[in-house]
Amino acid sequence: MPDIKINDFRGLKEIDVLGLMYDYKKIVSTSIPESFVRNLKNTFVKYGLKYDTVDESFDFRGQSKTYLISKETKYLKAAKRAYKLGRLDLVGRYLGYPECCVKFYYEKLKFSLSNSLLRDIYYNSNSFSWRLNNLLNFEGRTGGIKDLNLFREFTSFFKKTQAISLISHSPCSYDCRQSLKIAYLNHQYLLPYHRLPLSGYLILKNPVFYIDDFHFAIFEGYSGKNSIEYSKLLTRLGVRQFKDYLLRGDRIKIDNNSATVFRGNRILGKISSHKKILILPFDKSI
After folding, report:
1. Most buried of 44, 111, 112, 197, CB within 10 angstroms?
2. Which residues neighbour 39 within 8 Å (Cβ) at sequence distance 6 or greater?
3. pLDDT tens readout for residues 270-281
4. What pLDDT is recorded for position 105?
5. What's the per-residue H, E or C state across the chain?
6. Residue 162 pLDDT more than 90?
7. Exposure pattern of 117-148 as b/e (b: 16+ CB <10 Å)?
């Protein structure tokens, strides 16, 4: 077991740190909030880690500065070269992501960020594992926010809500076997190190009312074919105008592009969308 103190790495995702230190990731590629940069640079020296940066002209996510972190300089150089060549497949390999997932991500986005990646993953899934629920991990997806007011709401949401996920990549499906292997490894290694109590990850094991990647609600409850019965609204993003009756309701029924919120048999309100509304049934996890 690597002799590390996870709090030394504040500003990085725990699962990225563990993947790097346990050698199933050759590099970590991530943005770092400016307030954490100085301390993290000291941490890199302490643990013998190397780092470099890629700017927005090469980073397919368009981030102003992406940090590449590794145990070995050769992987940094190889990853930076792959970024400059636009070789997302090679970058994904160094990041330890399954090749099926890298291919899926690349084919769906073609370097153009979308706000419905999870919709694509949903339609590619035969079953759903809560361990692969990446709804609250926005890495690589924030470029899909085009509306300024939504971006402000997202920024506020992100400050209050941790990026809770057992994987740091977008899976090709919610039953991807290779992704599940990574999720189980991360879950196992989090036990002695976690900052968030492992019970905190159970938010991932709940049904999701989904319009797109930035308009959703997570409920404590149970999903049916076209409905969710719930006792509590756990969190939501981009559906502020519906917050009141989502909080007061106990059932939501989906009919293609619309949804009706009930309290008992009484209708509290309706929600409409230009896209088909989905239920992501992570409560019925494999």
Report:
1. 44
2. 10, 11
3. 999 988 999 999
4. 85
5. CCCCCHHHHCCCCHHHHHHHHCCCCCEEEECCCHHHHHHHHHHHHHCCCEEEEEECCCCCCCCCEEEEEECCHHHHHHHHHHHHHCCHHHHHHHCCCCHHHHHHHHHHHCCCCCCCHHHHHHHCCCCCCHHHCCCCCCCCCHHHCCCHHHHHHHHHHHHHCCCCCCCCCCCCCCCCHHHHHHHHHHHHHHCCCCCCCHHHHHHHHCCEEEEECCEEEEEEEEECCCEEEEEEEEEEECCHHHHHHHHHCCEEEEECCEEEEEECCEEEEEEECCCCCEEECHHHCC
6. no
7. bbbbbbeebeebbbbbbbbbbbbbbbbbbeee
| pLDDT tens-digit readout, 25-51 | 999 998 888 889 999 999 999 999 999
Handedness of CA 163, 165, 169, 170 (dihedral sign): negative
Q: Count the residues in the chain.
A: 286
Angle between helices 177-190 and 14-21 (to 10 degrees): 90
